[in-house]
């Protein structure tokens, strides 16, 4: 590498794999970024240059399913995830977009359900605390004493 440090040394210093180091190096080369360029940027600028965040255009290529509707539909007899995915896939293709694969579709729905479950649990705990008219003590982070 141009600074005279091997990938192995960088890998050990950063506690990351040599493959990751190679990917960063190859990405920088493809963007014509030099070490001098990198040294003039903040870490955040450099990271954004190497790994730009996806924009709305990319997100719109694969529209996400309506998980709320899916949940309601799955309550009906004879409706399963495969059927919902097939309907979703047809609708997305009809508008010229790329549908999620079945596994991605299911993972997206599972994440939605997990969030709903966590939100419901938090609401239930809060409702129970409030209904018992218990006082919630707010602790000061520094002194660990209640305010």
Automatic annotation (TrEMBL):
InterPro entries associated with the record: DUF632 (IPR006867)
Organism: Faecalibacillus intestinalis
Record protein name field: DUF632 domain-containing protein
Top-level division of the source organism's lineage: Bacteria
Every DUF632 domain range: 6-133
């Amino acid at each position: 590498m141009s600074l005279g440090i091997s990938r192995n040394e960088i890998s050990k210093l950063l506690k990351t794999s040599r493959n990751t180091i190679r990917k960063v190096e190859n990405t920088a080369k493809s963007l014509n970024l030099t070490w001098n360029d990198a040294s003039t940027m903040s870490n955040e600028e450099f990271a954004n240059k190497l790994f730009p965040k996806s924009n709305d255009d990319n997100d719109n290529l694969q529209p996400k399913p309506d998980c709320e509707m899916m949940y309601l539909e799955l309550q009906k007899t004879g409706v399963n995830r495969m059927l919902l995915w097939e309907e979703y896939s047809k609708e997305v293709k009809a508008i010229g977009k790329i549908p999620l694969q079945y596994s991605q579709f299911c993972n997206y729905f599972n994440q939605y359900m997990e969030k709903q479950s966590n939100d419901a649990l938090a609401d239930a705990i809060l409702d129970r605390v409030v209904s018992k008219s218990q006082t919630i003590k707010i602790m000061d982070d520094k002194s660990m004493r209640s305010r």
